[in-house]
Amino acid sequence: MQVVAVMNYKGGVGKTTLTANLGAEVASRGHRVLLIDLDPQANLTFSFYSVDQWREDLRKDSTIMRWYEGEMPGRDVDLHQLIVTPQLVNQEFAESGGRLDLIPSHLKLIDIDLRLAARLGAGTTLAESKRKFLDLHGCLARALRHEAFQEYDLILIDCAPNFGLVTKTAIVASDHVLVPAKADYLSTLGIQYLAHNCDELVAEYNDFVNYSAAGSDVDRAISTRFVGVVFTMVRFHAKKPIGTQRYYIEEVRLNGDIPVLTGVIRDSPRHFGDAGENGVPAVLRAPVTDDVVVEFRSLATEILDAVTKGATR
């Protein structure tokens, strides 16, 4: 099982579209995939369920909000109890034997960061503060060790466009971080800052694990790595990204903080404008020769190769 957090500080970069289509493509190859929606906008959830279905079947008892709320995350409900299996998309995997499951989000998840921060600051001694830090930041990592999650080949976590505590729990729980970005100034501006913050979080968490007497069993050192930056919403001319976008792609590549993946995803309102309306991502609906399908297939292979190599280091 490999866990990948999909994140960028900037919203509107195609993060959810990438997560939904990447998960669907990997599942179509016969793999078992779990998507975890940690974005309060819940767009990943609405990529597979209608708003009415969410309100009637999921909102009350079957979202990640229920797991994070309470005295401590996971104290009131086990994470695996929130897994749902979207029916429409899974009909597409009948021949391959793959499966795509989801842990849905909730619009009120936006309030959880403040509650977690209040608990984090409640320590009275250094040892207690470090213990609370590990308890909160490592909660998702510990939950994903449950045997129910070991049947999955890949877990993709769709993070909110921030670096709050909920997002930090995803980074601690992940083997890899994938950064979708548009090839423009604002979308690439925070990539270096994101890399720095992730590295700092990993170092701080591991320091606290080494300090903790219980660290050897309850909490484990982490080595979260970046899969790379994948450029989305790319516009093409003569089969190449347009000039201004090539400039920003090359700028990020030369910066070197995070590797840039070879695969890109084109801007295509025809494919992604109705995302979620059919409950089946575009990569499964379009013909196999379609440019978007070809790009997602190539990108999925590149990402799977990267995370597999990372797992064997």
Topology:
Blueprint: E1 2-6, H1 15-28, E2 32-37, H2 51-58, H3 64-68, H4 87-90, E3 99-103, H5 112-120, H6 126-137, H7 139-143, E4 154-158, H8 165-173, E5 176-182, H9 185-189, H10 191-211, E6 225-234, E7 236-237, E8 240-241, H11 243-255, E9 260-266, H12 269-272, H13 282-285, H14 291-311
Parallel strand pairs: 1-4, 1-5, 2-3, 2-4, 5-6, 6-9
Antiparallel strand pairs: 7-8
Description of the structure:
The chain has 14 helices and nine strands. With 313 residues, it is α/β, with parallel strands linked by helices. The protein has a single domain (2-311), classed as Rossmann fold (3-Layer(aba) Sandwich), CATH 3.40.50. A seven-stranded parallel β-sheet has the order 3-2-4-1-5-6-9, sandwiched between helices. It has a two-stranded antiparallel sheet with strand order 7-8. β7 (236-237) and β8 (240-241) form a beta hairpin. The longest helix is centred in the middle third of the chain and has 21 residues, at 191-211. The radius of gyration is 19 Å and the shape is globular.
